[in-house]
Design goal:
The structure holds two protein chains of two kinds. Chain A is mostly helical. Helices cover 69% and strands 3% of the residues of chain A. In chain A, strands 1-2 form a two-stranded antiparallel ribbon. The termini of chain A are close together. In chain B, a hairpin with a 2-residue loop joins strand 17 and strand 18. Chain B starts with 10 loop residues before the first strand and ends with a helix. The chains are: A mainly alpha, B alpha/beta. Chains A and B meet through helix 8 and helix 9 of A and helix 10, helix 11 and strand 18 of B.
């Protein structure tokens, strides 16, 4: 027996839209079986995960707050993925952005370093440091690839652990709140170091706006600019890109810097908007989940917007399911993994027709 | 009556049909090959020759129709089955392991295990009997294309086939190597073996074969004795129409527009070719040809001239008076150069991009399709349409993906894209490789016309006919070295052929002395 993948002659828009939806449905079905094997009701779990969070105002806000870092990171990753470069380390870039920006908040705590200037510059400077921290951290695997030909998949992934341990060390060591009863966390940021909320007493912070702007700008970049053309060409036909006169080295650095910068921005927005202090752990795996968001959204800005909301739902639903159904929190990660597999398989199915042949020769 | 004629033919095909989805590659083809007959299968690219041969060799199963050997109907559902019936094949593309010896490569495909020592003796036997020099202990990577082909032929002959299929065997050979091949094939015929010889070179067919089957668009259009036909009448049968002859335009030679001075570069890939002291100059209005067997440094030369790879010394490559050895592709384009790489899909064009996007690909700096970093797709679409009308590019829909075009049409598009920019220097690599005769003629005419308008054209090609047809002078590349150019109107095929085999300048002078 032989299994052949034959390229399909043409892809229609309908198939492109239907594939991720079918993948999501398949993942929900598989998730339901797992829930059933755990001895819980799959229909009840579906309702807790995917329906109830959509019924209340506060949880809708929470959805946007969780979708914000996912969308920011994923749109950055889409630059890399479209160029066929595999930045798996957005989680680390997210942490580094949060760490570097958060450091400034701690350093300026209670009026330190402010002098006559006042505190107005702190928030913009924190955002800039977050962007720079993420971009520089992403450039490490990019430079290693360009100079030495090291696989960016391995280096970017391994640097995640370095970043996580660095944050862990800083939160327990140098930046720990001296009056914090030895809890491993920094001081609570001053108000000037907090990302403003969009409305008084609400949970939505300015980061949500950043995400929307990043999505809109990226949509324009890919549709209209020569740079967007370059990114797609390098991914689609690298030899043709060299013939076009585009330098793949320069482009590698550029897309890694962009994706690191957006991950770093998401990191500082999370720290300054959501958490309000440095902790040993600031991300429930946003950087990895964003990879699923990018693929579920088919690397398109609008798709990523939708996909980030879907994946944010799994986080909120997962927390609710812990309480309501006593399902383990790992269920969320497992479900996200299943979803990624389904999305990738759906992607293959839209590009190729699977043909199973019996017997030795065709 | 000759008793032989009472015998059923060795191979007999009846009503062979092969469909790939909605596409009919072979449409009710009949073919008979008698014992000891040399039969030619001729037709343009895409006529269905390869499909038919794959069916005979058991690689593809026919959708309809029957195959009989010695009058007995058979099913050939694998190459093994075909070989067991006495059918052997020499493919156009070699399947050899570079890092193994000749004998080891042969041993790999034999059905039974055999001691390497015994095999060496048998290879030597075949080599002597068919006048094919072969050293069993040489590593394959060190061999020329002609020598590699001999391994493939030896592999085939060691299985004692009654019918040998050869797919375009001379396409990779120098004229001298081709001559050697014909001697071998004559020896095979003398032993009563049948040949099925696939080619679109009509002189070869006339030299070797007593019968020919002509395919066009998947159908058998004629069957004839090629020796009774003229090359023109055969060509007309193949194409179904008269082919336009190239009008050589008289053009004055202007100043030097492309100068390469002692270009040397080490190969970047394993088994690549090092270029050594390549020097050349092309004047406006001139077409300089670079002849040579594939894999002698043409790919490396193109990469270095296009700027996909740069060199240390800027003065090594001078385009339109500017020293651009260190400049990339875009810098060279901005100085009036344009390039057409050998590979259409994935190099000259991105297959999944639309034609308009493919215009942006090579014309973003020179075509007015980008303004302040923004792509003007409207303008690119107009340009794509201009190219399509000027070069008769047949396409489906207003702006289809490049991969939906046929090879010939995509090549016309790629060549037209560069020529419509009125470059001062054009460097093309194998512009008519795998392109049908009508499109080839159109492309050659476009190159001639461009030169007549004063551009310098450098044409890298393996096709000697093409080079003699349109070049003013021809230089030969062999093992990374370029010969001095010869006047194309005075040089003979033999001279060029000798240089292609790497004969030194001394021998070249000998030849002139005769």
């Amino acid at each position: 027996m032989r299994i052949d993948l034959e390229p399909r002659p043409a892809r229609s828009l309908a198939v492109d839209v239907a594939a991720p939806i079918l993948a999501l449905a398949a993942a929900i079905l598989i998730g339901g079986v797992v829930v059933w094997l755990l001895g819980k009701s799959p229909t009840r779990a579906f309702s807790v995960y995917f329906v109830e969070p959509l019924l209340e105002g506060w949880s809708l806000q929470e959805l946007a707050v969780k979708a914000c870092p996912l969308a920011l990171i994923a749109i950055g990753l889409s630059y890399c993925f479209r160029a066929n470069l595999w930045n798996i380390g957005a989680e680390g870039q997210f942490v580094m952005g949060g760490l570097l920006g958060g450091w400034l908040a701690v350093a300026t705590h209670n009026g330190a370093m402010q002098g006559a200037l006042g505190g107005w510059w702190i928030m913009p400077a924190m955002l800039a440091l977050g962007v720079i921290g993420g971009a520089l951290y992403a450039l490490v695997p990019a430079l290693l690839r360009v100079w030495l030909g090291v696989s960016e998949i391995l280096t970017s992934l391994m640097l995640v652990y370095v970043a996580e341990l660095a944050l862990d060390y800083v939160a327990r060591g140098p930046l720990r709140d001296p009056k914090g009863f030895n809890f491993p966390q920094s001081v609570t940021f001053d108000d000037v170091a907090r990302l403003p909320f969009l409305a008084e007493g609400e949970r939505l912070h300015l980061g949500v706006l950043f995400a929307l702007v990043a999505l809109a700008v990226s949509a324009f970049v890919f549709a209209r600019t020569l740079f967007g053309f370059e990114v797609r060409l390098v991914g689609e036909a690298p030899r043709a890109a060299r013939f076009a006169g585009f330098s793949d080295k320069r482009l590698t650095l550029a897309v890694f810097a962009i994706s690191g910068a957006l991950a770093g921005l998401a990191g500082i927005a999370e720290v300054a908007g959501q958490i309000g202090q440095l902790q040993p752990k600031i991300s429930p795996g946003y950087g990895f989940t964003a990879i699923i968001v990018a693929f579920l959204g088919r690397l398109s800005p609008f798709g990523i917007l939708v996909a980030s909301l879907v994946l944010a739902l799994t986080y909120i639903g997962g927390e609710a399911a812990q309480v309501a159904l006593k399902l383990p929190n790992d269920m969320t990660r497992a479900f996200q993994g299943v979803l990624l597999m389904c999305v990738l398989m759906a992607d293959v199915a839209t590009r190729y027709r699977v043909r199973i042949r019996l017997g030795a020769a065709p | 009556m000759n008793p032989d004629q009472a015998l059923p033919p060795l191979l007999s095909l009846r009503g062979i049909v092969k469909r790939f989805g909605g596409f009919v590659a072979n449409d009710h083809i009949d073919l008979d090959i008698a014992q000891g007959e040399a039969h030619a299968l001729v037709g343009e690219n895409g006529a269905g020759k390869s499909t038919l041969v794959k069916i005979i060799y058991g690689v593809l199963a026919p959708t309809e129709g029957t195959i009989a050997i010695d009058g007995e109907q058979v099913r050939l559902n694998s190459p093994e089955a075909a070989r067991a019936r006495g059918i052997g094949m020499v493919f156009q593309h070699f399947s050899l392991f570079d890092n193994l010896t000749v004998a080891e490569n042969v041993a790999l495909v034999l059905p039974r295990r055999e001691s390497l020592a015994g095999l060496r003796a048998r290879i030597a036997e075949v080599s002597r009997r068919y006048r094919m020099p072969l050293e069993p202990d040489r590593d394959v990577w060190s061999l020329s294309a002609g020598e590699r082909q001999r391994i493939e032929i030896a592999r085939c002959l060691l299985q004692d086939p009654r019918l040998v299929i050869l797919d375009e065997p001379t396409s990779v050979l120098t004229p001298q190597e081709a001559y050697g091949l014909f001697e071998t094939l004559d020896a095979l015929k003398a032993e009563g073996r049948s040949l099925l010889y696939i080619s679109h070179k009509l002189e070869e067919v006339q030299r070797l074969c007593e019968r020919a089957t002509i395919l066009r668009l998947g159908r058998k259009v004629a069957s004839c004795d090629p020796r009774q036909e003229s090359p023109r009448s055969l060509a007309a049968l193949m194409v179904g129409a008269q082919i336009a002859e190239i009008r050589p335009a008289a053009h004055a030679k202007g100043e030097v527009r492309l100068r390469v001075d002692a270009l040397s570069a080490e190969a970047e890939t394993l088994h690549g070719v090092d270029l050594a002291h390549v020097s050349l100059s092309v004047r406006g209005g001139e077409i300089l040809g670079v002849a040579g067997v594939a894999g002698n440094g043409q790919a490396e030369l193109f990469e270095l001239l296009s700027g996909e790879r740069t060199v240390e010394r800027a003065e090594t490559i001078i385009i339109g008076g500017a020293a651009l050895g260190r400049g990339g592709v875009t810098a060279r384009r901005l100085h009036g150069a344009a390039f057409v790489p050998e590979e259409r899909n994935g190099h000259a064009a991105a297959p999944d991009f639309s034609l308009a996007q493919n215009v942006v690909l090579s014309r973003h700096a020179t075509g007015g399709v980008v303004r302040r970093g923004l792509v003007r797709y409207e303008r690119a679409r107009e340009l794509a349409q201009e190219i399509a009308s000027a070069f008769d590019v047949r396409k489906t829909g207003p702006d289809p993906a490049a991969r939906t075009l046929s090879g010939g049409n995509l090549q016309k598009f790629v060549v037209g894209r560069e020529i419509l920019g009125e470059p001062k220097v054009l460097i093309v690599n194998q512009p008519t490789w795998g392109v049908d005769a009508a499109a080839s003629a159109a492309i050659r005419q476009a190159l001639v016309d461009l030169a007549a308008r004063g551009a310098a054209v450098l044409l890298i090609s393996q096709d000697l006919d093409e080079l003699f047809e349109i070049c003013d002078s021809i230089a030969v590349i062999h093992d990374g070295r370029l010969s001095a150019p010869l006047d194309a109107h005075a040089a003979t095929r033999e001279e060029i052929g000798l240089l292609m085999t790497g004969a030194t300048g001394g021998q070249q002078e000998d030849l002139h002395a005769h």
